[in-house]
Amino acid sequence: MNIHTIDLGFRTPETIAAYLIESGSDLALIESGPESVYGNLVKGIHKLGFEPRQVTKVLVTHVHLDHAGAAWRFAELGATVYVHENGARHLSDPAKLLASAGKIYGSRMDELWGTMKPIAAEHLHPTIDEEEITVGNVQIKALDTQGHASHHNSYIVEGNIFTGDVGGVRIKGGPVLPPTPAPDINVEVWLASIARIRKANPSAIYPTHFGKSTDVYHYLDELEKRLLEWTKWVGERMAEKKDEAAIISEFESYVTGELAGKGVSQETIEEYRNADPFWMNVPGLMRYWNKYKLQPNN
Question: What gap in Å lies between CA 288 and CA 298, rounded to an integer?
């Protein structure tokens, strides 16, 4: 088995990866990225000596547009698309998903994400927890790892785990950040998913943003620590009755300052920002606090 990392070149280098799994004569793709950079994905596949129609299976970690936006392209070529059972309906009919994203990105939708079309039922496979998917000579196990999204899988193959966004964002070996956009963030569920990843005892972790890391337990410890820190940080400012705009402004400075303080270059900070727009973390964490912590009986 070979794992090939394809840089999709989304606005900046090393922001979004797709991983091509080569086993025997079979090819599977983990993550499709957004349709806007489908051409870069095709070039990456060609560079490895393959054609897109040779990809028989596409495994997306969740349905967010930067992870699954181009999956329909492969379905139209005959591939089967695997997705968490809670997310399948959004790939068969992406209207609600696109409407939600449109409220955030407005006129930039096409520029950022391109086109997303429905995937026919015969090309869509909803997964269940611990389901095994055969690719050539190997089995890829789907692991239900919610918390970032309610429709999130990680995928394990021969000691390697592909963690989408529940495994955080790490650019060029820098700090590990937890992407916390609305609407699905559930910190307790996310922590349980991190525990599941630890229990799987992987030798390498492959987040979609971006690339392989082998210091798995340090990586997961840092992810968990920062998720709890960010959650507390936002909660404290909500307790001070600050509004969302004020918290976002402070949070932008907080994150950029922390990254710079750890020696991250301005160029790499922008790559982090493209992979995990800092401002988007605040509404997600505020919604978590309002839904799970500030309601009566919580």
Answer: 12
For 227-281, write each residue's pLDDT tens digit: 999 999 999 999 999 999 999 999 999 999 999 999 999 999 999 999 999 999 9
Q: Where does the chain hold its CATH 3.60.15.10 domain(s)?
A: 2-225
Extract the tokens encoding 3: 């794992």
Q: What is the largest CA-CA distance in the chain?
A: 59
Whether the model pTM is above 0.90: yes
Our separate counts of H helices and E strands in the chain read 11, 11
- What pLDDT digit, counting tens, does each position of 154-210 carry? 999 999 999 999 999 999 999 999 999 999 999 999 999 999 999 999 999 999 999
Closest to 274 measured CA to CA, from 174, 186, 199, 179: 179
Residue count (the chain): 298
- For the record, the structure tokens of 203 come out as 């030798």
Asked if residues 247 and 238 have their Cβ atoms less than 8 Å apart, the reply is: yes
Q: How many CB atoms lie within 10 A of CB 64?
A: 25
Superfamily of 2-225 according to CATH: Ribonuclease Z/Hydroxyacylglutathione hydrolase-like (3.60.15.10)
